């Protein structure tokens, strides 16, 4: 199951590196190339709660294997896509496959393990997240540089096939079957939630078009309608009893603050390393590697919520160090000094990620683990979109130009990176405050 987690998250970062090659290879417009990445994120986020509930209803092992199979097939469809519109369609279907596959991982961990063993399993899950996010950038850059069999960007999709086949074969033998509620899928709730999340996520993933604010407002309104609709359902898609639990409700706010800061930080740092310092995509990925390594190491060790606040302190210290390096270090030295600060950031993030998941899911009953996992993963995706929109907006607004375009000076990137890093630092402090309150009882 962790192989599937690795594959699903690898696909996000590995394709982000390949987007420029996709644009040139298919003769796509900039908007089409961006939607190759954004389409996956959108359908993945929209389908997560429904995917988690499908596992509760029809069996988590069965749903997991169906999701893995669909992910392999859609990855192959992406690899052979003859045009940008076909690739975008295949990517959106791939996102739906991931939404069926990935919530089952947390559901099985929650239903199969208890106590210290569950904490250890969540630590392994956190380690997998760290390794996948960094490996994607490195593997993506290496595949594009190597260009095996002249496949170019298509190899970044084909890499999913052997990983997925291994996950499917081993999963069919080893993953235990479990179910939750015995009821029909709430199709009305799934439709309302899908429309609401589309309205909330579409404007930021499309970089705020002119019609973005009305669509965002409509999404927020539909979310209110969805909540009222769910209260009247005998078998709701999202049981309101989940949101009535203090760890779930308050934990989701902590998740939003944590992942909003992380997503925004990764974006602005990627631009600073590549456009500001002139590193290649592979060089940028290697600069991120210490962060992923630190994340993986502490995720294995962090098993209790008592590490949440110390983790956010380490994050804040590392962000302050990044701020100092960006402002004070000469251009030629920054690429050498930043990895050390990023390693500390990774150590802190690893102390937060797995215990935060465990705290949110700790009191969830067996009937609702799929729904709760879907809600949790949806919150992370909303936070990722918000981080890109908010921190990316601060970065681009301060830069005074479209990030990545030629003609922008290094001093402009330095100033913009410093201001945006300050905003991420505020979010890290907010995460610490929320995490401290999460330990209280009500």
UniProtKB/TrEMBL annotation:
Keywords: Antibiotic resistance, Membrane, Transmembrane, Transmembrane helix. It is found in: Cell membrane. The chain crosses the membrane at residues 34-52, 64-82, 88-109, 121-145, 157-175, 187-205, 211-229, 250-273, 279-301, 308-329, 341-362, 374-396, 416-438. It is a multi-pass membrane protein. It comes from the Bacteria. Residues 1-440 form the Major facilitator superfamily (MFS) profile domain. SUPFAM superfamilies: MFS general substrate transporter. PANTHER family: ACTINORHODIN TRANSPORTER-RELATED, MAJOR FACILITATOR SUPERFAMILY MULTIDRUG TRANSPORTER MFSC. This is MFS transporter.
């Amino acid at each position: 199951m962790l192989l599937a987690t690795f594959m699903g998250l690898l696909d996000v970062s590995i394709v982000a590196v390949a987007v420029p090659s996709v644009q040139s290879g298919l003769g796509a417009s900039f908007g089409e190339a961006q939607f190759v990445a954004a389409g996956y994120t959108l359908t993945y986020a929209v389908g997560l709660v429904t995917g988690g509930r499908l596992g509760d209803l029809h069996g988590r092992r069965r749903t997991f294997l169906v999701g893995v199979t669909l992910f392999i097939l859609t990855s192959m469809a992406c690899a052979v896509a003859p045009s940008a519109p076909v690739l975008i369609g295949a990517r959106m279907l791939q996102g739906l496959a991931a939404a069926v596959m990935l919530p089952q991982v947390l559901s099985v961990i929650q239903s199969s393990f208890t106590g210290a063993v569950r904490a250890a399993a969540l630590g392994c899950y956190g380690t997998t997240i760290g390794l996948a996010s960094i490996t994607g950038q490195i593997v993506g850059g290496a595949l594009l540089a190597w260009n095996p069999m002249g496949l170019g960007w298509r190899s970044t999709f084909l890499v999913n096939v052997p990983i997925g086949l291994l996950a499917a074969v081993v999963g069919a033998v080893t993953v235990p079957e479990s179910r939750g509620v015995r009821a029909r899928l709430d199709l009305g709730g799934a439709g309302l939630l899908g429309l609401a999340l589309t309205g909330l996520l579409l404007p930021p993933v499309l970089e705020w078009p002119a019609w973005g604010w009305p669509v965002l407002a409509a999404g927020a309104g539909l979310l209110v309608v969805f909540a009222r609709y769910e209260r009247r359902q005998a078998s709701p898609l999202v049981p309101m009893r989940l949101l009535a639990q203090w760890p779930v409700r308050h934990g989701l706010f902590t998740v939003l603050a944590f992942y909003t800061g992380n997503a925004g930080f990764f974006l602005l740092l990627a631009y600073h390393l590549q456009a500001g310092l002139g590193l290649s995509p592979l060089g940028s990925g290697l600069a991120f590697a210490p962060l992923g390594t630190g994340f993986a190491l502490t995720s294995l060790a962090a098993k209790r919520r008592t590490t949440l606040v110390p983790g956010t302190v380490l994050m804040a210290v590392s962000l302050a160090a990044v701020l100092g390096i960006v402002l004070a270090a000469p251009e030629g030295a920054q690429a050498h000094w930043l990895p050390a600060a990023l390693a500390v950031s990774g150590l802190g993030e690893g102390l937060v990620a797995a215990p935060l998941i465990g705290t949110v899911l700790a009191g969830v009953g067996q009937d609702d683990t799929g729904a709760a996992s879907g809600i949790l993963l949806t919150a992370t995706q909303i936070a990722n979109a918000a981080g890109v929109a908010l921190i990316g907006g601060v970065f681009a607004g301060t830069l005074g130009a479209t990030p990545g375009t030629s003609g922008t000076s290094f001093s402009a990137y330095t100033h913009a990176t410093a201001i945006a890093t300050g905003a991420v630092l505020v979010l890290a402090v907010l995460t610490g405050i929320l995490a401290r309150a999460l330990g209280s009882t009500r």
